[in-house]
Design goal:
The protein is α/β, with parallel strands linked by helices. The longest helix has 21 residues. The chain binds nicotinamide-adenine-dinucleotide (NAD) and zinc ion (ZN) (2 copies). The site of nicotinamide-adenine-dinucleotide has 33 residues, from helix 1, helix 2, strand 12 and helix 6.
Length: about 375
Amino acid sequence: MPVGSTATLISTHQLAPEELMKAAVVRDFRQPLVIEHRPVPTPGHGEIVVRIEASGLCHTDIHAAHGDWPIKPTLPFVPGHEGVGIVTRVGGGVTRVKEGDRVALPWLGYACGTCEFCVSGWETLCAKQVNTGYGMDGAYSEYAKAFAAYVGIVPAGLDPFDAAPLACAGVTTYKAVKASGARSSDLVAVFGVGGLGHLAVQYAKIAGATVVAVDLTEDKLAMAKQLGADYTVNAAREDPVQAIQKLGGADAAIALAVSPRAFEQAFASLRRKGTLVFVALPADNSVRIPIFETVLNGITIVGSIVGTRKDLDEVYELHARGRTHVIRETRPLETVNQSIQDVLDGTVTGRIVFDLRDTAVAEPLERQLTAAGA
Ligand code: NAD
Ligand code: ZN
Ligand code: ZN
């Protein structure tokens, strides 16, 4: 298995090989991730341990690894909130899942279950939430611990490499399309057709809308077309605002591009009474939105954060029925740093999903350690 040029290996000597796992760890916001040996976690009350098979690379993991946001993760940590795998151990009090079940570890790793948001279908707004791969170690790892109550249940027959991106990119855009209020007569503009956007296009089509996809490269726009986009606009070559206004203006625009400029263009592409959904979370944390046009045109601006467990069930149900396609590229975890660079360079079509199956910890890693003289 190839080892990424900037990834290194660190050994944990006290534990037996079967007690060790491989994980990609952020130790410094300005340094590449490091592939390490870490102890396999043990489940506490209400917790499970999952043998990860597939782990998607969400752009949020890049923000986490770079410390891009106002609230930063505590170092060191393991990113990854699109993990799918098999339950290997269950802690006390766990009845929702059992050993052998396939589950997904989403961004919402834990919520209190009792606050006004948790009890009203808005668990994603719980102030006590803990986020997978941010507030607790995530799925860039052969094993990961999770709270049993908050994992997604992956239906039998669903490919784990599809289920992984659906656990964040899928549920987030499914919910964002709901938040946009998209209806069959609407024009929906999707700004950014990357990991999230390629699924947003499909959910907007499922809602019956006409879809215009905006991105910066022809490859991504060709994919959007294949996935059902009715129109595409290359914002590197033409003004998306003009192009969308020529179509009558968007009833809803979904901002998925990691660029405040794209948010502003999404705003300006709306027609009267339009809705702008904020989803992307660029490090540069502000946009300029004109007050006058917002008021006079009756514009709605709404923030949308992932989705609930129920939303994820619906996402999996749609996929099981063949209504969605996940575009993805499978890579070994050792490529993590190059993979991050490729996402930042915009050269990835769809999602990168790390393959963590059958990379037995002891043998290959020990061989690599010996080779590395450790
Ligand atoms: P991605 O890198 O896969 O996709 C972003 C896409 O935007 C790329 O295709 C890129 O080419 C395109 N793009 C960049 N600049 C553009 C511009 N000016 N105009 C048009 N397109 C442009 O990233 P992703 O994994 O899809 O995540 C997107 C963002 O959403 C990230 O900021 C991430 O943190 C955030 N996110 C938010 C939530 C949420 O719940 N709100 C959930 C997941 C991810
Ligand atoms: Zn995500
Ligand atoms: Zn709560």
